[in-house]
Write a structure and sequence with these properties.
With 401 residues, this protein is an alpha/beta fold. It is built from 15 helices and 14 strands. The chain has helices at 34-53, 81-94, 117-123, 137-142, 149-162, 180-192, 225-236, 240-256, 275-281, 309-317, 333-346, 353-356, 359-370, 386-390, 392-399, and strands at residues 2-7, 66-73, 97-107, 127-133, 166-173, 197-202, 260-263, 266-268, 286-289, 294-296, 301-305, 326-330, 374-376, 382-384. The site of iron/sulfur cluster has 11 residues, from loops.
Length: 401
């Protein structure tokens, strides 16, 4: 069992961001909404734990304790160390946290955003995930980021001094104005700083309104007009072929530095793979709390909280507290099988014979084999080639019912 906790506050909003985020006065100052959010979050943790316990009617944790906890956002490092300690204590009391569990906290690198890293480590955080995105000043400006390149390096050093067992950075490629040289320089500098883990994502500019995700129970907030205009302009400057070259370049440099790819967008030194994110890709059950957060029972039911903070707080502040608005989806057997194959193919070890030989999966794999996207190992496992990693969506689209 894994637990994701969404903390929906940032100092400002980056124009490409689709996460559930409230910024400006909501995040800082006397009118900040962090306190009511935290009260609601604690109430939700209790209700979620109650719901997990109820079938067995046993007192205390009635299921395997958590192997991973992930505080994501947003910018969870805007919370105080005391807030983080209170959340983790509550989670430990109601869900149980296994000895040696991985506890990740996302932070922004800027000195006024990274928070009290030593305090977070003392509260039980073992892994820091830094939203670096780039070390090129012009790209950071274009992306609307508040930090400077050197902030990333000083945050990495500070995390080490704080005793974080694992330090990861998120980077973006296919950014408007990015060049192969600036991408190489970003990678070179984070590797030189000694990170344990790199997530490199292609900048994706979606339209959650058009996808119908922003209604009252949707898990996204509406896109602001300024962000919409920014995305249109940025999209015109993206290039799929250049993105593929940048991905291949990253794969080469990261591998050379001892970080092995283990998922399409993730590379790690041995032992530093994100155990939390692996739970998603292995289709394991995960619980979730906070606006817009998604949970999966490991069997076929997925649920999510609506993105809107007002509704979230109102439900959980009521007497008695109610679960927040949201949605639920029951996956049919075919969709479940397709998801298992897609998630499995995202990771290095791929899928086993029992998944690969299902008729709908086998047909798509035949197509992928014919186009050099997949390879078979002697033990019957099927995994993506480098070409397959670059063109994985073509294969995944054929796996969906
Ligand atoms: S800092 Fe991260 S979560 Fe916050 S707005 Fe920017 S991309 Fe989104």
């Amino acid at each position: 069992m894994a637990l994701y906790v969404h903390v929906p506050f940032c100092v400002s909003i980056c124009p490409y961001c689709d996460f559930v985020v409230y910024a400006g006065r909501s995040a800082r100052g006397s009118g900040a909404r962090i306190e009511p959010f935290l009260a609601a979050l604690h109430a939700e943790l209790d209700l979620r734990a109650d719901a997990l316990e109820s079938p067995t009617r046993q007192p205390g944790p009635a299921r395997p304790t958590l192997r991973t906890v992930y505080l994501g956002g947003g910018t969870p490092s805007l919370l105080t160390a005391r807030d983080v300690a209170a959340i983790l204590d509550h989670v430990a009391r109601r869900f149980g946290i296994a000895a040696g569990a991985e506890v990740t906290l996302e932070a922004n690198p800027g000195p006024d955003e990274r928070g009290d890293l030593a305090g977070f480590a003392a509260a039980g955080v073992t892994r820091l995930s830094l939203g670096a995105q780039s070390l090129a000043p012009s790209e950071l400006r274009r992306l609307g980021r508040r930090h400077a390149p050197d902030d990333v390096l000083s945050a990495i050093s500070e995390a080490r001094r704080a005793g974080m067992a694992s330090v990861s950075v998120d980077l973006l490629y296919d950014v408007p104005g990015q060049t192969p040289a600036s991408w190489r320089e970003t990678l070179r500098r984070v590797l030189e700083a000694g990170v344990d883990h790199v997530s490199a994502y292609a900048l994706t500019l979606d339209d959650p309104d058009a996808e119908g995700l922003t209604g009252p129970t949707g898990d996204h907030l509406p896109t602001r007009p300024g962000a919409r205009a920014w995305r249109e302009q940025a999209r015109a400057e993206q290039d799929e072929d250049r993105a593929a070259d940048l991905y291949a370049e990253a794969d080469g440099l990261l591998t050379e530095a001892g970080l092995r790819w283990y998922e399409l967008s993730n590379w790690a030194r041995p032992g530093h793979e994100s155990r939390h994110n692996l739970a998603y890709w292995h289709h394991d059950p995960y619980e979730a709390a906070g606006p817009g957060a998604h949970a999966f029972d490991g069997l076929g039911t997925r649920r999510w909280n609506a993105a809107r903070l007002d509704g979230y707080v109102a439900a959980l502040a009521a007497t008695p507290a109610r679960l927040p608005p949201g949605g639920v989806e029951h996956l049919d057997a075919r969709t479940l099988a397709a998801e298992e194959a897609i998630l499995g193919l995202r990771v290095r070890e791929g899928i086993g014979r029992h998944v690969a030989e299902r008729p709908a999966v086998a047909e798509a794999l035949r197509w992928g084999r014919g186009h050099g996207l997949i390879e078979d190992d002697p033990g019957g496992r099927v995994a993506l080639t480098l070409r397959g990693r670059l063109l994985s969506n073509e294969l995944f689209a054929r796996l969906l019912p």
